[in-house]
Design a protein that fits this description.
- By secondary structure, the protein is α+β, with helices and mostly antiparallel strands.
- The protein has a domain at about 5-105: HIT family, subunit A (2-Layer Sandwich).
- It contains 3 helices and 5 strands, in the order αβββαββα.
- The protein has a 5-stranded antiparallel sheet, with helices on one face.
- A hairpin with a 3-residue loop joins strand 1 and strand 2.
- The longest helix has 22 residues, at about 55-75.
- The model has no long low-confidence stretch (mean pLDDT about 90).
- This is HIT family protein.
- InterPro entries: HINT, Histidine_triad_HIT, HIT-like, HIT-like_sf.
């Protein structure tokens, strides 16, 4: 099965293009969750965040920021979401990395992250343990020391 986003990039499927760069394309989502719902994708097929390189991710994000600023001017929304999902459990429907840029209004009907209120704060010890668990798997290739949380 072919990738619909690759088909859009190649010009074989119609899309309402908002902007593009050499490496990224922004177009209106065919299912407008809110007016102005834009998808920003790399032009090269990359399945998810685990497969995208830092440079290409930066290109996609930079275009996402440009689109966000344009949406702010065009729609004057009360807020804006940047949303990106990976894998079926997270709600990724098209296996091609994509960033949703959505202008938001109060009570616009879209999902709120914490539908029953934010969870209570975790203990500092639990947060420190989680940070250490994650830090073990981060590359330290830029000469920047890993930040330490204060206890």
């Amino acid at each position: 099965m072919s990738c619909p986003f690759c088909e859009i990039v190649a010009g074989r499927l119609d899309a309402s293009v908002v902007a593009q760069t050499e490496h990224a394309l922004a177009f209106l989502d065919i299912r407008q969750a809110v007016p102005g719902h834009v998808l920003v994708v790399p032009k090269r097929h990359v399945e998810d965040i685990y497969a995208i390189g830092p440079e290409l991710a930066g290109d996609v994000m930079q275009l996402g920021v440009r689109v966000a600023n344009a949406l702010r001017e065009a729609f004057r929304p009360a807020g804006l979401n940047l949303w990106q999902s990976n894998g079926a459990a997270a709600g990724q429907e098209v296996p091609h990395f994509h960033l949703h840029v959505q202008p938001r209004r109060v009570a616009d009907g879209l999902l709120r992250v914490y539908t029953h209120g934010a969870p209570p704060p975790s203990s500092r010890a639990e947060l420190h343990d989680l940070a250490q668990r994650i830090q073990r798997f981060l590359p330290h290739d830029h000469g920047v020391p890993t930040p330490r949380s204060s206890s």
